[in-house]
Amino acid sequence: MERLGTLRRNKMRVTVAAAASAVLALGLVACSDDGGSGGGGGDEVTIGFMGDLTGENSGLVIPPKQGAELAFEQYNATNPKVKIKFKTYDSQGKPEQATTLVQGAIKQDKIAGLIGPAFSGESQSANPILDEAKVPSVTPSATQITLAEKGWKYWHRVVADDAVQSAGVGEFALRALKAKKVFTVSDNQEYGKGLADNVGNAVKPKGVQVQSDAVDDKATDYSSTVNKIVQFKPELVYFGGYYAVAGRLFKQLKEAGYTGKMMSGDGSLATGLIEGAGEKNAQGALLSCGCLIDAEGKTNEKAKKFATDYKTKFGSEVAIYSTEGFDAATAFIEAVKAGKTSTEDINTFLKTLSFQGVGKPIKFDDKGELAAQDIFVYEVKGNKLPLLGSSKDAQVS
């Protein structure tokens, strides 16, 4: 997933000099223990989690962190031979902060693996360092297409990329919304612009008229873009970016009298969207995501048990990427259960891994991509974001 605010920023080129300066800046490292117990050495391995835990878009990252925490807690409760220590690193979604933190995680904490980074921009910065250090990572939420094209040997993700999401949205817009006109808007950042542009490209070949515009993610007045949309009268407005901006945009669209459908991607799949737009303005807004949020267990029994366990521990319903955080942690757990505790052994094991996760089958291709890729659609109802179904069969009222 690709900021909210600083999420998924422009690609950072990591140089030897930058890495060296990051080492010197280790005093900035902020981390905490979140679970696990036991001694050290061969009786315990440390798995990290990195993402925005206190910033503007932390609503997208706390759920996968909690999902991972639950998985490790349940594993450690079985009194295994090798326990897993869980350590978190709060990057606030900032690439430069992720660079510093990952140096500390590798050199000081000697992590055996990392869940994350959560956003694509920070992944661009941190993963070259992880790859050089031969430390495997599994991101639950970074969806930028180009991440799989870097040639990284230690990188994986348990969510479909933005190309798959865009295609799914295009299919949904044509089938369920019968859209003839689509207006795409982005926050002009890597993740948001790529997602919005790809949605437009997915429907244009089908004869759909497409107009597009970009807004400043630090601005609060989007009247110029809103006026263009109202004049164009599209059946669908699709926003690529994060919920903080989406909420403001959707609010202003409704106040301007727009009556068509409003939709955004995984970066907006959080209750912060409803809070930002106002509950009345947000009603009926649609969200797309490669993640599965199935609190009622509609898809499988594992999902239902996970949702129950999650609510018992955290006092809240499963949310965006909760499931993917749990499944990413489970990938590392399976490696440790198989006796793989060194970074290279864990990475080799991940290449052969295959299991039914809470959300979807977990198996990686040779680029680290998830082999099975599905896109799901959610709709704002009241103050909740219930699952409508997959992009292939979801229906709107």
Counting structural domains, the number is: 2
Low-confidence stretches are 2-41
Tell me, what is the CATH class of the largest domain? Alpha Beta
Assembly context of the chains: single chain
The CATH topology of the largest domain is Rossmann fold
Largest sheet: 7 strands, mixed
Structural classification: alpha/beta
* CATH level-two architecture of the largest domain: 3-Layer(aba) Sandwich
From the alpha carbons, calculate the radius of gyration and give it in angstroms. Answer: 20 Å
Average pLDDT, to the nearest integer?
89
The coarse overall form would be globular
H-E order: HEEHEHEHEEHEHEHEHEHHEHHHEEEE
Description of the structure:
This protein is of the alpha/beta class. The protein folds into 2 domains: about 190 residues, Response regulator (Rossmann fold, 3-Layer(aba) Sandwich), CATH 3.40.50; about 140 residues, 3-Layer(aba) Sandwich (Rossmann fold). The strands form 3 sheets. It has a 7-stranded mixed β-sheet, sandwiched between helices. A 6-stranded mixed β-sheet has the order 1-3-2-4-5-6, with helices on both faces. A two-stranded antiparallel ribbon has the order 12-13. It starts with 15 loop residues before the first helix and ends in a 7-residue tail after the last strand. The N terminus is likely disordered.
What are the main properties of this structure?
alpha/beta, Rossmann fold, 15 strands, 39% helix, 7-stranded mixed β-sheet, 397 residues, 2 domains
Sum this structure up briefly.
The protein is of the alpha/beta class and 397 residues long. Helix content is 39%, strand content 17%. It folds into 2 domains: 16-159 and 319-362, Response regulator (Rossmann fold, 3-Layer(aba) Sandwich); 163-289 and 375-390, Rossmann fold.
